[in-house]
Amino acid sequence: MRKHTLKRLNVTRVGKATISAVVGLVVLALQACSAPQTYRSLTIDGSNAASTEQSVQRIVRSMPQSQQAEFLLALVKIQVHSGQQQAAALLHSDTAMQHVNYQFLGQQTHGLTYLQVIEQAKRLQ
Q1: Distance in angstroms (rounded) separating the CA atoms of residues 109 and 43
Q2: Is residue 34 very low, low, confident or very high in pLDDT (cuts 50, 70, 90)?
């Protein structure tokens, strides 16, 4: 998406960062390889941004590719729901992982498993 289009949408700086985050999460999902299904019992350590990032990446890397997109989109939905970003502009960036708000995401997902993240995102409808 071009800069002038983003300005037209009046996307905030935080919104642009979230857009970047979504794309990075999708890239991470595509790059991660399938692993044993231990992902269902792994939890997110939301103590700080770094621990949140590491635990999200650990879960994604341990899950089958068929489950990754749903999980990553659920995390994004949890982050966006707080009202900090504009959902309309989410999927239009290519540097997402650099701008994920892992501090905020950790606060929302600390201690949750894969299934709990999916369920929490469903309740945010």
Answers
A1: 9
A2: very low
Torsion angle of C-alpha atoms 12, 125, 111, 47, degrees rounded to 10: 10
**How many other β-carbons are positioned within 10 Å of the β-carbon of residue 67?**
19
The phi, psi pair for 101, rounded to 5°, reads: -85, 75
Which residue type is seen at 65? Q
**Tens digits of residue pLDDT in 44-63:** 999 999 999 999 999 999 99
pTM given for the model: 0.46
Residues 88, 92: Cα–Cα separation, whole Å: 9
Amino acid at 114: Y
Tell me how far CA of residue 20 lies from CA of 42, 63, 94, 108, 122, in angstroms: 25, 23, 6, 19, 23
